Structure formats: C-alpha cells, structure tokens
Amino acid sequence: MHIGVLTGGGDCPGLNAVLRSVVRTAEKEYGSTVVGFRNGWRGLLEDDSMVLDRPLVHNLLTRGGTILGSARVAPQKLRDGLGRMREVLDAHGVDVLVPIGGEGTLTAAAWLSSEGVPVVGVPKTIDNDIDGTDLTFGFDTAVSIATDMIDRLHTTAESHQRVLLVEVMGRHAGWIALNSGLAAGAHLVITPEQPFDIEEICQMVTARFERGHRHVIGVISEGATPLPGTMPMREGGLDEFGHKRFTGVAQQLGDELERRTGKEVRTTVLGHVQRGGTPTSFDRVLATRFGMHATIAAHEGHTGQMVALQGTEIGLIPLADAVARLKTVPPARLAELRAFTG
Ligand code: F6P
C-alpha cells in the first residue's frame, strides 16, 4: 500500500514524531511505502512531495516542527483544486491520505472524504480544541512551556509589587490558559469562553494588595474578550482567510487595569515560543500512538475517520463528527478555578 501524509495549519511539537511513527508502522508492519506532501495541502496542489523512509525519519522523535513544512490554505483554493489533488494522489499511487492538522486541516480532510478520497485524519494543535479526542499532542508541551514562564514571572512580580499579565495562545478555547494558570498558581485566569468583567478584575486586584499580597499573576487567552460595552477594545480586522486578527488583549486589559487601579501592570505575550522546540514525553507518546493507529486504520480500510484519545486508548471517530464543533472549556472546568484564584 502507498500512504500519503501531510502536515497542515500551525505547526506544533510532535508532528515529526507522527511522521516517524507512520513510516515505521507502514514499513515494518505492512511493507508499505509513505510519500510526504510538503507545506500542507499546497504540496498536493503543486505536486511537491518527498519519499519518507526509515533513514529519513531516524532521530525525528524529539525534533519540534515538521520536516514536511506546514501552511494554511484557503478553503476556496482547496475546493477549486479537487481535480488537481486527485490527479496528484493518483500519480503517486496513494491509496490513503493521512492529513495531520487542526480544525482547518481536518475540516478539509472531512470534505475530501465526502468527495470519495480515502483519508484518515490525525488531530494536532496546541490549543487542544478538537472535539472527539480527549487531548491533542502539542498541548502538553505548550502548557509546560507556559507554566515554566509563569513560574518565573511570580518572583519578579513580587519583587516589584506588580500585576503581571501573561497572554497565551488560544483563539476560541482557553485550555492552555486554564491548565497553565492552574499549574503555575495564577491569581486570575481569563479564557474566550467567558467574557471578562474589567470592574470585577479591578476589585480583585485592589483587594489582593489590600490583604497584604505583593503581586498578581493573570493568565489570559489571546481570544478573550471583555463583556460588551465595559471597556474600549481596538479591532484587529480579518486575516487573509477571514479569521479575526487578535490585537494584544493582555496589553489592552493591562492598560485599562493600570488606569483604573493605579497599580503597576506589565504584560508578557508568550506567542510562538509555545509551539517551538522538543515535545514533552507525553506528547511524544501520544503522537507516536496516533501515527501508528492512523496507519493501522488506513490498512484496515477504516477511512473517513480520525484517530482520537479516548481515556487511555486510541480509538476512531468519524471525521465529520470531529469537526462539527470546537471543544471549548466547559463551565464546570472554569468554575473549578474559583478555589485557586482571586
Ligand atoms: O491554532 C494554533 C495556533 O497556535 C493558535 O493558538 C494561534 O492563535 C495561531 O495558531 C497562530 O497562528 P500563526 O502561527 O499563523 O500566527
């Protein structure tokens, strides 16, 4: 059998571990071959590929990023390119395509499957917002990096009796803010699921200093928004795919907080450092298991599916179900923060 593989969307630690796993499982278990398409769907549209074999994936387990390269491709461009993608898959004799990606890539995979192309999806994103899988690889690494950074901010904030706001990634879901905030003992966690109330935050900050505490650490997801009409926010416009651009919500919240409370506020935006470098052991294992089970599913004819972590086991769910909605943080998980914040 010939397996095609691509990595799409924003990269994350563990992608290379999946590639290694797909190649090893395909070659060792089935005697199959693997071809990789470069830069996500673009490689399929432009017939830009490379053979992936065991010598090539040697030493990939710990390497961040993706040796295939990644890119975001506008959905319309993909729809227009269906015929071309079929031609390229046929030319390479690809029996099953394994797209590894987040919401955008998996939505495209579900659509391709509905057009009759055999695909098995692998979920990845540091945001952990793919439905149907308990976790995505990349998330644990991002949370570890963010936690380490927030740990470091406690001491400097305390020395200067400041409020330190840390902006983490998460456009629609606050999983990174939730877990890094809990892990690093943040006093305030703000996620996109629950619009924040600037007045409530000011009261909390003032009350903490009045109680004799020497600092405040707040973790805020990049996609967080204030309650409508409560504070001015600069609009960021849309990117080339029509996605909302983010405008430094932590900085804007920090400016307003400083103005209203008179406390010194500093802001740290973690940005792409959360996606860089070597994956944690947890992410290496999850990525390896995802790659292996996707390859098994491809050989057993379970296409139109996505591999998913279900408890401790790796299962399959229909791609169409996985992309029907984003997995956001449920209210009960946000409520758990109450005992540890403020
Ligand atoms: O979806 C993953 C993610 O890292 C988001 O958390 C973040 O908003 C986005 O990608 C950043 O995308 P880019 O690398 O294109 O700026």
From TrEMBL:
User: Which pathway is it part of?
Assistant: Carbohydrate degradation; glycolysis; D-glyceraldehyde 3-phosphate and glycerone phosphate from D-glucose: step 3/4
Q: Which residues bind ATP?
A: G10, R72, V73, G102, E103, G104, T105
Tell me the Gene Ontology biological-process terms attached to this UniProt entry: canonical glycolysis; fructose 1,6-bisphosphate metabolic process; fructose 6-phosphate metabolic process
Top-rank EC class of the record's enzyme: transferase
User: What Gene Ontology molecular function terms does this protein carry?
Assistant: 6-phosphofructokinase activity; AMP binding; ATP binding; diphosphate-fructose-6-phosphate 1-phosphotransferase activity; fructose-6-phosphate binding; identical protein binding; metal ion binding; monosaccharide binding
Residue positions annotated to bind Mg(2+) are E103
Its GO CC terms are:
6-phosphofructokinase complex
Q: What is the catalytic activity of this protein?
A: beta-D-fructose 6-phosphate + ATP = beta-D-fructose 1,6-bisphosphate + ADP + H(+)
* Protein name, UniProt field: ATP-dependent 6-phosphofructokinase
From which organism does this entry originate?
Modestobacter roseus
